[in-house]
Amino acid sequence: MRNIHSSHALGRTILAALTSLAMLTGLAGCADGLAGQQVTGPTVRIGIKFDQPGLSVKDGSTYSGFDVDVAEYVADKLGFSKRQIQWVQAASSQRETLLANGQVDFIVGSYSIDAARKKVVDFAGPYFVAGQDLLVRKSEKSITGPQDLDGRKLCTASGSTSAQVIKNNFSSNVQVMELSGYAECVTALESGTVDAVSTDDIILAALAAAKGDNDLRVVGKPFTKETYGIGVRKGSVELKRKINEALQQMISSGTWKKDLTAATKGTGYTPNPAWNPPATMNAQNSDHDVSHFLKTAKSSTSSASSSASASSSSSQSSSKKGE
């Protein structure tokens, strides 16, 4: 990577912008590019997850998924072909460190934007707005939302807060099973070991699509709002601007919709139209306030109880009339 030395007259903002540009134009040397080929010359290092079906998966020397599609589109608009991309594994716990140390140029990995993360990294986007939801078997009719999980078995990945959100706000008697990852949760769901899996809806849809048998469905009633951004090193003003321009072009060209549809094919999943595609690239924070959904859930439960009560009264009345 080319080193940039600024004069004292350059302000911090200008220096940060030049640094981010240098990361994308002067990354000389050899790196593993597309299909493991050795690429000489400029490369761009993109952090993704290697184990999220439908979003970003490494299979041998190939990479696929919606996050990969987004990353490749952005890289192309920045002037890099697929062969010039160096993919770097970016686990959730390592993302900020990778950016701060300059080990990646940007990260596309279901990276939720929030105030705490903004203190150490910058975000372009959002490129997608997800929400915590439930994945159930297609034959399951009694689970219409998180309020229906009392006494049922819910699976989530170890270290995730998804189950706690449900237990604290919707179904205090839900039985939680934690497994090492969501792929394992999906296997447990298919076998009948658990009744539902919970995490962000796009991840659930992609997991179901990866199974390819159409036996699972996303409930479709998200109860948090997760804005996915592209993480860049703090102060990368110019790089962030260029990424935002690329994302806007991806959306307006129809490529965003095409790639998302392909990633979730067969699940019946439709992203929340009030949130997607994102209308503005303003790095809006995620929203974990479930109060609105709580009101909706209580209203639905109350309506269902009222309907059942009315039906029972009507039945009793009819019975008496027939006596």
Keywords for this structure?
alpha/beta; 23% strand; globular; D-Maltodextrin-Binding Protein, domain 2; 2 domains; five-stranded mixed sheet; single chain; disordered N terminus; 15 strands
CATH architecture of the largest domain: 3-Layer(aba) Sandwich
- The CATH C-level class name of the largest domain: Alpha Beta
Q: Compute the number of helices.
A: 10
The biggest sheet, with number of strands, parallel, antiparallel or mixed sense and barrel status, is: 5 strands, mixed
Describe the structure.
With 323 residues, the protein is α/β, with parallel strands linked by helices. It folds into two domains: 12-130 and 225-263, Periplasmic binding protein-like II (D-Maltodextrin-Binding Protein, domain 2, 3-Layer(aba) Sandwich), CATH 3.40.190; 132-218, Periplasmic binding protein-like II (D-Maltodextrin-Binding Protein, domain 2, 3-Layer(aba) Sandwich). It contains ten helices and 15 strands. The strands form four sheets. A five-stranded mixed beta sheet has the order 7-3-8-15-9. Strands 12-11-13-10-14 form a five-stranded mixed beta sheet, covered by helices on one side. Strands 4-5-6 form a three-stranded antiparallel beta sheet. β1 (30-32) and β2 form a beta hairpin. α2 crosses α8 (237-252). The longest helix has 32 residues, at 291-322. The radius of gyration is 23 Å and the shape is globular. It starts with 11 loop residues before the first helix and ends with a helix. Mean pLDDT is 82; it is low at 1-23, 25-38 and 301-323.
